[in-house]
Design brief:
The complex is a heterotetramer, with two copies of chain A and two copies of chain B.
Chain A: E1 2-5, H1 6-20, E2 24-28, H2 44-48, E3 53-55, H3 60-73, E4 76-80, H4 91-97, H5 101-104, E5 114-120, H6 135-139, E6 145-147, H7 152-164, E7 169-174, E8 182-185, E9 198-201, E10 206-210, H8 214-227, E11 232-236, E12 239-241, H9 245-255, E13 258-265, H10 270-281, E14 291-295, H11 305-308, H12 312-323
Parallel strand pairs in A: 2-3, 2-4, 4-5, 5-7, 6-7, 10-11, 10-13, 13-14
Antiparallel strand pairs in A: 1-8, 6-12, 9-11
Chain B: E1 11-12, E2 27-28, H1 48-73, H2 87-95, E3 102-104, H3 110-116, H4 120-127, H5 161-174, E4 181-186, H6 193-205, E5 209-215, E6 218-219, E7 222-223, H7 234-240, E8 243-248, H8 252-269, E9 273-278, H9 297-304, H10 308-319, H11 324-345, H12 366-381
Parallel strand pairs in B: 2-8, 3-4, 4-5, 5-9, 8-9
Antiparallel strand pairs in B: 6-7
Helix pairs in contact in B: 1-2, 1-3, 1-10, 1-11, 2-3, 2-8, 4-11, 5-6
Classes of the chains: A alpha/beta, B alpha/beta.
Bound molecules: thiamine diphosphate (2 copies) and magnesium ion (2 copies).
């Protein structure tokens, strides 16, 4: 096993995917010669040629439109959107096209071979347009899968699974962790399952649920709570759509309490979907309201980022509030 | 590096604007309305067999449109879109290609699918959203698609197929196929951002795609002079560095010729081509539309004189490849066939309830299956409220 | 008072807005001479001239980009998107631009004078692309207001309030009701408040909440329930963002039960936000799980539309389920 | 009706492609690098006063960029974007306009704001996101904006300002103002769908807007020949029916001249104009970028020889409007001023906590106020964790 940071793990997954199938193609703004502004595609053009790893013009709707066409043709399209904040010009191609391609054609055609990679999330002093966590915008769209890894090991296994999955997948990469998160990652091929949450820590008193970079935060809060004698069950959702209702339900049946934390603003975020579903599934088992610890309902700020974010202290307070309810 | 080379071009020391007049765009015409050829006109590759197939397809198109608009008026069909007066663009485009070429359309190009051999039954089953529809009854009438015939399923959002065609063609190139993609769109849809994306990327990514613009003068009620101020759509090709060609869209021979040379060029050079076919939407936008609210009868009449089907017929007659008796027999036969097919298809039952949730994903996920189970239970409780599916699952 | 259908009411509101302020401009695809494909802007070009009511080229991202610029200049921009299904190409201009215009500039600039009108919703045999109810996609976006009227009277009063409100407003019009819904509408100017729900029917046993065309459905279900002796409190949310938490909370505090119904698919729809918030606000008062009666998690179908939709029978069943919990 | 008139143009009977070679785009150059004028060159309206203001702005720009890049390297500033080598495009554009004209930019056009008189303190306060920033510390450095100076606040998503500029200009026309809008963007951003939308709508809706493309050869690492295959951006104007002009972007007199005539034309004709200024991004894309990963030193050196500021200085010297002593004094003064201003601004405290939720709406809604109240309570509980705001509300 090698030590890799999250970027290396992604680069390694792309390398494996391109090696195993000569119809796999990686592209996006600055993705080619330079290897992407974060260097996730570094070395791929050199290794696989300009036809399989290339710069596109600066047009997100075109990148995804092109990717849809390419995937429908049977090629494996791995498109990069430089920042998740810039995925919105491609919203129509994703939500109206990719998501509905198979359904509308009665499965005559599909874009199952499409994967969209995009760095997302805050914590890098990026302000409004280099910090967003837009997963909830896509979660309301049947036909899409949305996947978010929390560390290098997860990133590689989930990205390989996403590329090979026969549905369009949006793969959001926590850019704050690109270099900060380092861990053991097998050099060989492996996959982690889509649609399955992972229980990182078993516990009895309360369930904490998050995804991506927010996992660090809830783990830290769980540690704090542990010193108060509160036993937290910590779950990484990993796949936002379709999400693992079963695992979360089982956990909350046991603990009777749930806190969901997300980077994105509170209102209509994905935490709301989870709360709505779990209050239904676990109604008679809930001992306190499901808590959502999220960003404030504002655009992502800059100077006051520290105050804005759903940090471990806010999660910790929510845990105590839930336990003492 | 582009900006380095800017010193090589012409230099002026007082400002000189360039504008639409800087580029002259000739229009290709081969066939006159009376069926004779223009002097010096270069024919496409076409023999009697191909010509007959093309002509029959045109007639079939005209007849099906006429019958389906009537069916809609009778309340048998919810919606229809005819291509009256501009059938040559789609039929001729398909005729200039090979079967392995992918056809991506906007919606008014059913002629290309007819040429490829989509059966009358398949057309009808789609329009009546019945259990035999290849699209499983999920889209409005005229949203056809066929994997087997390399005809991409139509999608209502305009312009989205344009960058998709670029990507599709890129994949064909990557695989080294002897195949290109043709992408149809209207002059209205060419205003979408996806048009810009698709054409520019095709040039940069060197994709063998033929962009085929049907400039029929209108986008619903909006005349093309409220759609753009440039010299049509062909003039935009210049800006993308794409070879562009304007043709008489009602001249079937010009359409076939243009598509044939565009295909050869795209394949050989791995480069896109833009064709702008000038025509006119003689009918309503769709059966939901009434053009008398926004244009004059006189204008329509001027264009009736350019009927592309009559023009081809005149040529066929002159070639002695066709005669009047054959012609009226063909119309009669098609009318009967279409009418008969309507009667069959409108009676075929709706798709099975399960098709409501299949194909959302490759495999139906748990939550969606749960929703279906709940729905079935509900329908069983209220069978009268869901007459088309109750008792059928 | 005059009898007006929903289209007339909207046309009338636009007429009043354009008459009172010569800087008010209406535009969109086919909006000019023809008066829009649904005829909502009928007669306006004739009355106010081509400079103030006009066709745009066929480009939604341009329509809203243009509208943002126009509104930031101080003109009153009323843009039409021909179908809500076609709003997605403008998603970036709405979510990244309009919503964040004021915040990002420190209020140096704003697009408060922007209103986006779009017919939405199903029930017209429109299939995937003429039936969508995309309100939830916008509800996750601080800075926007999202308004949906249920009938002609509401449409006129809420549209006038939206146009005059100093924030960007998306105004979704239930196209199924355009001609079907007819009612008394004052010819003179009036406004209805944004951000305020309306209680249409007081009741004690359960709260039913919806918006737009779905109101008819829950009212019908309430009637059915009444014959079983169940007393429903029926609420029209009217404004989706920011929504009236107070009114809904008060109602559920009283009834102890809540059903939210929406046309859009279940997962991550706005009903989920409401459920998430109300389980928190009313935890100790809830006698059964909050029910969501929604479209299935599929694209909007055609042949099986009847089976797909959240109809009154499904709402009625949900009521009984909640009461018998 | 556009399609009616297609019969009026040139007709051919064998296919003739048009392409990029169909349009010749001359480049306007007025000033040579040595400070002399090209023969026959037509000067813009400019006197010593304006020239001096322009030149001083250029020098200030160069100095501020240099200092701020250094400050970023020292870790005092989080991020910066210089305009090294292409300052003439923004400064000259502003100089060719009137104060009432709206300026909408991409991000590398701070020169226009400098020309308009945004104070050094205002620049610094924005970059240090402090309590005195007009933008209330909400956006990354270089996202300036000023209502008073008619300079629209910069927004990171590329291309979005293009259709907005069309709308803004339309509003100016509607009000009958003696004012136009200028809209800057890079050749990279010109690939966005919003570019297509904005230009086409400007032509159709007859908006007095000047589209000013800075073609500086790169979009981050992507060279312009991987961005498009057409003849630059000016060639696209032809397709939209927009008067277009290519200029030497490092020639300040050409920039001013072009902007002046574009303004006059746009206002008189209620029509857009497209200017493409050829230049080169001599520095890194931003302080997060290192161009040595994707281009050569030689290429950069070739362009260093075209320094627009040196070129203008040579002209000023030749005009006897300026001398070397003044020049070095100016550089020294600006360096000191900028350094001093950094020291002041970096110490000013952060914006008040309340600004986290203001301006989301015109009036703060209940739910957001509740979130703030909760936040304040939380900060009071953990003051050490929020050192910049704890105890300050
Ligand atoms: C993105 C999008 N916007 C709007 C519409 C509604 N619409 C359907 S057809 C049409 C006009 C298209 O005109 P054109 O492209 O010229 O094709 P034609 O109908 O003339 O064949 C419009 C506005 C749509 N389907 N998709
Ligand atoms: C919609 C969008 N996509 C991507 C980016 C990331 N990005 C920022 S600057 C840039 C390159 C812009 O190049 P160009 O327009 O040529 O301007 P220049 O930097 O050369 O001045 C990119 C890709 C962005 N800001 N917005
Ligand atoms: Mg048309
Ligand atoms: Mg550039």
């Amino acid at each position: 096993m090698a030590q890799m940071n999250l970027l290396h793990a992604i680069n390694n997954a792309l390398d494996i995917a391109m090696t195993e199938n000569e119809r796999t193609v990686c592209f996006g703004e600055d993705v080619g010669y330079f290897g992407g502004v974060f260097r996730a595609t570094s070395g791929l053009q050199e290794k696989f040629g300009k036809v399989r790893c290339f710069n596109t013009p600066l047009v997100e709707q075109g990148i995804i439109g092109f990717a849809n066409g390419l995937a429908s043709q049977g090629s494996v399209a791995v498109a990069e959107i430089q920042f998740a904040d810039y995925i919105f010009p491609a919203f129509d191609q994703i939500v109206n096209e990719a998501a509905k391609f198979r359904y509308r054609s009665g499965n005559e055609f599909n874009v199952g071979k499409l994967t969209i990679r995009a760095p997302y999330g805050g914590g890098i002093a990026g302000g409004l347009y280099h910090s967003q966590s837009p997963e909830a915008y896509f979660a309301h769209t049947p036909g899409l899968k949305v996947v978010i890894p929390r560390n290098p090991y997860q990133a590689k296994g989930l990205l390989l699974a996403s590329i090979r999955d026969d549905n369009p997948v949006i793969f959001f990469e926590p850019k704050r962790l690109y270099r900060a998160s380092v861990g053991e990652v097998p050099e060989e091929d492996y996959q982690l399952p889509l649609g399955k949450a992972e229980i990182l820590q078993a516990g009895n008193d309360i369930t904490l649920l998050a995804w991506g970079a927010q996992m660090e935060i809830i783990e830290k809060a769980a540690e704090m709570a542990a010193t108060d004698g509160i036993s937290c069950e910590v779950i990484d959702l990993r796949t936002i759509l379709p999400w693992d209702i079963e695992t979360v339900t089982q956990s909350v049946m046991k603990t009777g309490r749930l806190i969901v934390s997300q980077e994105a603003p509170l209102t209509a975020g994905f935490a709301s979907e989870i709360a709505a579903t779990i209050q239904q599934e676990c109604f008679l088992h809930l001992e306190s309201p499901i808590g959502r610890v999220c960003g404030l309902d504002t655009p992502y700020p800059l100077a006051l980022e520290k105050e804005y974010v759903a940090d471990h202290l806010k999660v910790y307070e929510a845990i105590k509030h839930s336990i003492n309810y | 590096m582009n900006t380095d080379s800017y010193n090589d071009g012409a230099v002026v020391h007082t400002p000189v604007f360039i504008d639409g007049h800087s580029v002259e765009i000739p229009i290709l015409k081969i066939l006159k309305q009376d069926g004779t050829l223009y002097e010096g006109a270069e024919l496409p590759e076409i023999d009697q067999k191909l010509a007959t197939k093309v002509y029959k397809t045109l007639v079939f198109h005209r007849v099906m449109d006429e019958r389906m608009v009537a069916s809609q008026r009778q309340g048998r069909l919810s919606f229809y879109m005819a291509a009256l007066g501009e059938e040559a663009a789609s039929v001729g485009g398909a005729a200039g290609l090979k079967d392995q070429d992918m056809i991506m359309t906007q919606y008014r190009e059913q002629g290309a699918l007819m040429f490829r051999g989509f059966s009358l039954e398949d057309f009808m089953n789609q329009m009546f959203s019945n259990a035999k529809d290849l699209g499983k009854g999920r889209q409005m009438p005229i949203h056809y698609g066929s994997k087997e015939l390399n005809y991409m399923t139509v999608s209502s959002p305009l312009g989205t197929q344009i960058p998709q065609a670029t990507g599709y063609a890129y994949g064909q190139k990557l695989q080294g196929l002897d195949a290109v993609t043709i992408c149809y769109f209207g002059e209205g849809a060419a205003s979408e951002g996806d048009f810009h994306a698709g054409l520019n990327m095709a040039a940069v990514q060197e994709a063998p795609v033929i962009f085929f613009c049907r400039n029929n003068g209108y986008a619903i009620s909006t005349p093309s002079d409220e759609q753009f101020k440039g010299n049509g759509i062909a003039s935009r090709g210049v800006g993308y560095g794409i070879k562009s060609l304007r043709i008489d869209g009602n001249d079937i021979l010009a359409v076939i010729k243009a598509t044939q040379i565009a295909r050869a060029y795209a394949l050989k050079e791995n480069a896109p081509v833009l064709i702008e076919a000038m025509s006119y939407r003689l009918g309503a936008h769709s059966t939901s539309d009434d053009p008398s609210g926004y244009r004059t009868r006189e204008e329509e009449e001027r264009w009736q004189a350019n009927d592309p089907i009559l023009r081809m017929k005149n040529w066929m007659l002159a070639q002695k490849w066709w005669d009047e008796a054959q012609d009226s027999a063909l119309y009669t036969r098609y009318r009967e066939e279409v009418l008969a097919a309507v009667k069959v298809s409108e009676k075929i039952e709706k798709p099975h309830l399960d098709t409501l949730i299949t194909d959302v994903y490759d495999v139906t996920p748990v939550h969606l299956q749960a929703q279906m189970d709940e729905l079935k239970e509900h329908i069983n409780k209220y069978p009268d409220a869901y007459p088309f599916t109750a008792g059928k699952f």
